[in-house]
């Protein structure tokens, strides 16, 4: 046990692990680029699909922030993704797509694949803990992705349920209440330091899983744990090693 | 295909199956009687545990009705079960239980087992459909029971999420919206005709699974389908035969 982990009795009371999904559990960037590239090849459309995927994701936080600040009524991530998609198709000069094709493209975010360690790790963790999503993704996005990637969730907790996005307090407090647990009985697993900071502030246990290529080769943040999170791991299987012995 | 089933193209659009749980998926009566009997043997307490279980369940609908009618604020099924438990312990003359023992007893409703056909049927249905709970049970009850009974849900939808009990409209409309689907894309699977009547009224597809011993040997209702439900089956495996071919 290294110095960054509290370990031992501090984690003995943990009953549920709740996982950030985009980046932590699934490799959204590789998945979306692959999905867009396949679409382009099928339709004979040339574009820098990696740049398209990155630009799409770049609209994610600003889109949620407008909801979080009350500048618009609740809109879930599928709605926000679609608005951003329409703008990007215009920006990239991709024209004449049918409504069905646009819907298909938007569902790229429902066809995400796990990191190689994801399913083996989750499968082991599920033996000892309740495992659930804790994501800004919509319920359909999380359910479809779980089917696509074979993620063995015990439950799906989404921003949709509380109609708030992380890091609004309603999400952290909401997921704890959803499972009828005390904060210290819930461990947040995330590849993002900001998420863990908020979870810890509400009394949750914290596990950082390092995903230094989530944003591709030029990723500039969340390259390492930035606090003494209860567990720091390089993969979901390493997290299972730590928690399940 | 018999005359009570519409079958065919009318069901081709179904994407999600949402299951009533108590009675339809799990044999709550055998489970709770077994749990209470084991407790009694361990503690040296003699009682008619079958009568106790039946009386406990008899408080279920009236307890929810007080919430549904607005006679009290939202209280989930764990709270209602506990209130009823305390009254029944008194009524049955069972005294001197510790708070931990009472909590343990109340969690009998979290340790329910499936019918013999449940897991094989759900496992096959999950290959083709999203499968989810649609239950008045609490999230902890449904998650714990799924772990206990090995139920392979894709998602857990509970009365807790909408803070309404079936048959309030918010539950049927809520589960359809939860999955982002149209009513005809959701099939309600239940052993209770009243539940299917409500589901059909909101445009859901309907599957009746006959559970004529849910309430024991003297069951007096829901002994057969009472309408032309889209599918009528004698077990979850027969439902899988009908829907998965």
From TrEMBL, chains A, B:
It comes from the Bacteria. Keywords: Hydrolase. It catalyses: an (S)-2-haloacid + H2O = a (2R)-2-hydroxycarboxylate + a halide anion + H(+). Its EC number is 3.8.1.2. It is an enzyme of class 3 (hydrolase). SUPFAM superfamilies: HAD-like. InterPro entries: 2-HAD (IPR006328), HAD-like_sf (IPR036412), HAD-SF_hydro_IA (IPR006439), HAD_sf (IPR023214), PGP-like_dom2 (IPR023198), S-2-haloacid_dehalogenase (IPR051540). Catalyzes the hydrolytic dehalogenation of small (S)-2-haloalkanoic acids to yield the corresponding (R)-2-hydroxyalkanoic acids. Belongs to the HAD-like hydrolase superfamily. S-2-haloalkanoic acid dehalogenase family. This is (S)-2-haloacid dehalogenase. It comes from Cupriavidus basilensis. The lineage of its organism: Bacteria, Pseudomonadati, Pseudomonadota, Betaproteobacteria, Burkholderiales.
